[in-house]
Structures are given as structure tokens and as C-alpha cells.
Amino acid sequence: MASAISNRYYDRVIKTTQITLLILGFVLVASLLVTVTKSKFSSLRANLQQQDVVGVTAADRTKQLECLTRNIYWEAAGEPFEGKVAVAQVTMNRVVSGKFGSGVCGVVYQKNVFYEKVVCQFSWACETNHKIKPVSPNKWAESEEVAKKVLLENFRLPGLTQAMYYHATYVNPGWRLQRVTQIGQHIFYKE
Hints:
By secondary structure, this protein is α+β, with helices and mostly antiparallel strands. It has one domain. It is 57% helix and 12% strand. The chain has helices at residues 2-51, 58-76, 81-97, 103-108, 137-152, and strands at residues 111-114, 117-120, 165-168, 178-183, 186-190. It has a 3-stranded antiparallel beta sheet, covered by helices on one side. Strands 1-2 form a two-stranded antiparallel sheet. α2 crosses α3. It is elongated.
């Protein structure tokens, strides 16, 4: 009889353990499913914000393309392809972040006032030379192609997904930001 009680007890322990493991498995799978779903929705939301899909007209998109092309040209005309993409990507990262101007043109032409002095996020935007025709039609055409790839095709460099700032190698702004990489003559940072 003791053996029968022992076997029943052993069977209950096994069943309880199996049920516990089954419940734990369901909880883990559900948790993983929730995490993956949240991540996917977050990614989709970011893409929608970045693409400004809702209500964008052809004229709006053309203006965004022009602003991004100008920024690439005046900031990185002499840089390699990757350097141009990196400048465009920082611009788009700023658009998505919402911490800078509104939309591509708002980010490109954003100005702040420090000690009664107007400071542009991109130095060329405070200078008058950006209003004249580009000096090099070939570099303008390449800048425009990069702008199309980044703005319209969502082309990105994987290492710069969080890059928000950059400066030329010949200046030292003394930023206390985390350095991401150097491409050409620019050093890129994230917050």
C-alpha cells in the first residue's frame, strides 16, 4: 500500500511539474510574441514618420528632396558616396527623432539663437552661398542621387542608425557625445 501511495505521489509530482513547465512555456512564448509585435509596430511607426506617408504631395516630396540634396551637397560634396549617405542619414535621423525642425526642410534650415547670435544646425544654411547655383554640376547630381536613395528608397548605412551629429575632422567642438565612426572627413556621434 505504501508503494501505491508513493507511486500516486510521484505521478502527481510529475503531472504538476509538466503542467508548470507547460504554463511557463506558454508565458515565455506569449512574452516573446508581445516583444516581437511591439518591436515590429515600433519599426513600422518609425518608417511612417520618416516617410511622411500621410498627406505628402508630389510638390512636398520634391521640396524635401531639394532640401536634402542641398544639405548633402553643401555638407559633403567632396566626400565619398558613403560620406554623402551618412550626412543624409543624420538628417533623416533628426527628422524621425522629432527633436529638431519639422520635416526634412525644417531640420535642414533649423536655426537657434545663442547669446543673440543666430546659429544654424548646418553651417552652410546661415551663409549666403547656398542660394547660388552649385559650383560642380557633377557633385550636385551625385548629391541628388544620394538624396533620392535615402529619402525615397530608405537606403541606410547600418552603423549610423542612431547618429544625430557630426563635424569635420579639422574642428573640435568639444562635444561630450558618444563617437560612432568616421567616414571621409566627418566624425559621427550619437547622444
